[in-house]
Write a structure and sequence with these properties.
alpha+beta, single chain, Beta-Lactamase, 14 strands, 2 domains, 306 residues, Alpha-Beta Plaits
């Protein structure tokens, strides 16, 4: 592409972002491949998800995060979402949908999507406008989350080797480090699940969950407590500050399959993070996990340069 044209398009996207930031209505802007470019404060409040610069949430990941459905609760195929139609057919698209935020609140929205064109007709992406349908809000304990589970390697043997007091001191220091990492990456720690029964945290982004797991491993090394680390994505039930469900159990089983300091993820997480996380995934084959009916294919996370 001509550098002058590319520069002009960047300016137009910047101006569009500035316009969206001034608007009181929820607005979302996506690029030519459906990747997230920006959404404003009104959209943050509506979706219950903070905007992060550089965060790339493809349509498929958004669909999973918010469990997009018809107002009758029927699942909508990703290709039938208005954003996907506008990208594919380069025309405006509209639909009334139901979403479920990560805090369990259900919203009914009218979603209108417009294609964006630069001077000269070059396609830039789409702008999405959300209109909340008043009176359709309700609370639900059910939701979808990215679940990170970690467990200290050979904790019983380590306690015997260094003593209860020394182990508790190390565990307390690690607990503080892990909570800080979870907060920094916009996750939620599950109280009562930190270093006694293992570490459990939920995230809205697969990218952030993977980054947190990698930092968990570094924190464990720093205090002398290596960790098993596993990530899965799926439906959870939230109750009294805790989360339950089969997806949580699977994350714990995946963690148990990992080597010391290694991050293993499910096929679901790999699919969600493939275009957003700056890592690669090494196929570790199918594993039989206790309590899971069918074998699951697992992947080891590899940072760039490994």
């Amino acid at each position: 592409m001509d550098p002058s044209i590319e520069s002009q398009q960047a300016i137009e996207i910047s101006l569009l972002r500035q316009w969206a930031s001034y608007m009181a209505m929820p607005i979302w802007i996506s690029g030519t491949q459906g990747e997230l470019l920006y959404y404003n404060e009104a959209a943050e409040a509506l979706l219950g998800l903070r905007f992060e610069e550089g965060q790339k949430l493809p349509i498929e990941e958004l669909h999973v995060l918010f469990k997009t459905a018809t107002v009758e609760g029927e699942w909508i195929a990703p290709e039938d979402l208005p954003m996907a139609i506008a990208h594919r057919e380069r025309r405006p698209a509209h639909r009334r949908v139901q979403i479920e935020r990560l805090d369990g609140a259900v919203r009914v929205l009218d979603v209108t999507v417009f294609p964006l064109k630069a001077q000269g007709g070059t396609y830039l992406g789409v702008v999405v406008v959300f209109w909340e349908v008043v009176g359709k809000d309700k609370s639900s304990p059910y939701g979808t989350a990215i679940i990170l589970f970690a467990d200290i390697v050979e904790s019983t043997a380590l306690t015997e080797a260094i003593g209860d007091s020394s182990f508790r001191d190390k565990a307390r220091e690690l607990d503080e480090r892990l909570r800080k990492i979870i907060r920094q990456l916009k996750g939620t720690p599950v109280d009562g699940k930190l270093l006694g029964d293992g570490v459990l945290a939920v995230f809205s982004s697969a990218k952030n969950a993977i980054e947190a797991a990698l930092r968990f491993g570094e924190a464990g090394e720093a205090v002398g407590l290596q960790l098993h680390l596993g990530i899965h994505a799926g439906d959870v039930i939230r109750e009294d500050g805790n989360v339950f469900g089969g997806a949580v159990n699977i994350a714990a089983r995946i963690s148990g399959e990992s080597e010391a300091g290694e991050v293993l993820v499910s096929e679901t997480v790999r699919g969600l993070a493939r275009t957003s996380a700056r890592v690669s995934f090494e196929d570790r084959g199918e594993r039989e996990l206790k309590g899971v009916g069918e074998p699951m294919r697992l992947y080891a996370v590899r940072e760039a340069g490994e």
